[in-house]
Amino acid sequence: MLARLRERGRTRRARAAEPMTLVAHLAELRYRVIVAMVAVAAGGVLGFLLYEPVLELLQEPYCEIREDCSFLVTNPVDSFSLRLRISAYIGLLVASPVVFWQLWRFVTPGLYEREKKYAVPFVASSIVLFVVGGLLALWTIPRALEFFVDVGGGADLVDAKYALKEYLSLVTFMMLAFGIGFEFPVILVFLEVAGVLHWRQLAGWWRYAILLIFVIDAVITPSQDPISLLALGIPMCVLYAVAILIGRVVQRNRPAP
User: Does this model's pTM top 0.90?
Assistant: First the structure.
């Protein structure tokens, strides 16, 4: 079995060194997608087992604004369906190293040898930034909840008792939005490494980029409150500048377009 896997690996590396046809690209894409899906499924099983401690972690923002932070469940099937959904999110997070690695390996044949060395930094930075974005969302949520209570009339008039389904939907979508938003500089650096963009172009577009960042943040942030908008928009602007600096280092010896 091991010998067969090694032989397949040698065959795949040999094919990667040759120009690939459209059929070969599709076969390679199918292989990468299957590997990623298997990794996500395995992570989902782990997520199903870790549901309760993860739920306690997601409940902490709610407990910061209310002493009795137990949830309301009005539908008998909500608890099970939400457990499946959260398990899928955990599975995607756990499998993210495999997913990003498969994505990188799929585009690697189109890159030069000096560009392939960025594989590990690409995967590592994608995971770290996604996790940092999710943690920032978790830190922002109590402030957003307090904002909603204050706008609604204050704690004296509003008894903020949340249903499990709506609360978890808000928290998970917020964490996904922040995590995906923090992947923005990774995409820019990847395009710079691949030669699609030049750092001088990004530097020239900074005014439009800031406007576009806040417009996109307003669309993808599910809570739509100004605190979450600033908490996501300001770091993305900073990361945009970081992507320019990294591109300047990577493209030091390349002519500007």
Answer: no
